[in-house]
């Protein structure tokens, strides 16, 4: 069995964890299968849509590789796909959060209302993120993708949607952010409030149970 799990925690710098929630994600989108298909089949076209809404196709001679891996450049015209944890990519890739509640479709390619990086009203500071090694625990094998945010906006911020965005392209200077997961919660009981000065920790766990 394959699962994607989502855990969301708020953390006060002095009081520690102030809330912790967990769900089973149900929201891989079509882009995920495009990139996975490209990893499995060589010399084939794939057409993911970037977070700006533009379709991005690869030449049939290209081969996608390294889905969700940390940065690794192969050179030439080879297509690569990876999750990037470095701060210099900022809010454009990795785990993202938002406060929109529009429903998903198979063609969802971006958050409904992404919360921007910064310290202004309604903004969160995005850290670089973390990508864990595969771990075996009994019948379970998993790895974690994490990101920590800080609220220095001066007010509380309510989180209603979450996503994972990877980079996809043919060179290190010609790559595009592609959303592969979006979880959205329309019920207020599932919303997470991050108070001013609190941290928000998001963990996505990809889990296989034998």
Number of strands: 13
Helix content: under 10%
Strand percentage = 35-45%
Shape: globular
**Integer tally of domains:** 1
From the alpha carbons, calculate the radius of gyration and give it in angstroms.
17 Å
Class per helix and strand makeup: mainly beta
Q: What integer is the average pLDDT?
A: 83
Order of helices and strands: EEHEEEEEEEEEEE
Q: List the total number of helices.
A: 1
* Biggest β-sheet strands, sense, barrel: 7 strands, antiparallel
**Distance between the ends:** 7 Å
Structural commentary:
The protein has one domain (2-200). Helix content is 5%, strand content 40%. It has one helix and 13 strands. A hairpin with a 2-residue loop joins strand 7 (135-137) and strand 8.
């Amino acid at each position: 069995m394959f699962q994607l799990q989502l855990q969301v925690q708020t953390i006060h710098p002095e009081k520690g964890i102030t809330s912790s929630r967990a769900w089973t994600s149900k929201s891989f989108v079509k882009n995920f299968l495009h990139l996975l298909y490209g990893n499995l089949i060589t010399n084939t076209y794939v057409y993911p849509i970037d977070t700006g809404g533009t379709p991005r196709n690869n030449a049939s001679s290209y081969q996608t590789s390294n889905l969700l891996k940390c940065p690794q450049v192969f050179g030439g015209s080879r297509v690569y796909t990876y999750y990037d944890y470095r701060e210099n990519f900022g809010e454009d890739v990795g785990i993202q959060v938002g406060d929109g509640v529009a429903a998903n479709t198979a063609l969802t390619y971006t958050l409904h209302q992404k919360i921007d990086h910064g310290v202004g009203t309604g903004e969160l500071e995005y850290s670089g993120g973390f990508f864990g090694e595969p771990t075996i625990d009994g019948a379970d094998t998993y790895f974690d993708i994490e990101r920590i945010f800080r609220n220095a906006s001066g007010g509380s911020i309510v989180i209603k949607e979450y996503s994972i965005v990877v980079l996809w392209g043919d060179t290190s200077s010609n790559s595009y952010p592609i959303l592969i997961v979006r979880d959205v919660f329309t019920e207020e009981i599932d919303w997470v409030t991050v108070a001013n000065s609190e941290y928000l920790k998001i963990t996505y766990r990809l889990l296989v149970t034998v």
